[in-house]
Write a structure and sequence with these properties.
Layout: E1 3-4, E2 7-8, H1 18-50, H2 65-75, H3 82-87, E3 89-93, H4 102-118, H5 135-140, E4 142-146, H6 147-150
Antiparallel strand pairs: 1-2, 3-4
Helix pairs in contact: 1-2, 2-4
Subcellular location: Membrane
Main location: membrane
Organism: Acidisoma cellulosilyticum
Amino acid sequence: MTTFNAMPIDDDSLTWGVPSRRVGAFLIDGFLIGLLTLSLSVSFAILHVMSLGLLHGPAHLILIVGLIYESCFIASPAMATPGEMLVGLQIRRSDDLGRPTLLQGIAFTALLYLTLAAGVIWLGVAFFTHRRRTIHDMISGLVVVRAGALAPRRW
């Protein structure tokens, strides 16, 4: 068993209270993605009208705003979306608690949206698994942890 900041990786304190915080983070991020999508929609509508419909093609990129938003924030040095930062969560690699790669962020987000499309009930797996991981966490090789639990402890 390896350690990170003198704390065992399998320590349960890393993931205690994570499922309820994830719900709050999801709602905050959903609101922010909605605002971003709305502003892009208005911008593309104005561009569409001003170009007499010739520049309609880029408007279809609105469909992947959430994927880009989540993936880029997960792979960033913060290792969390703004919603996750507000509720004190970080997304780390499962094996060594390192920073996720962009490919892992894309897989994590795409699988999250597939899980939501298949039915929210599948997210309930987090209540029964080790380290409170959902299906898209396990497949992408990531784990959601409390950021405060990773801070070095002071005496």
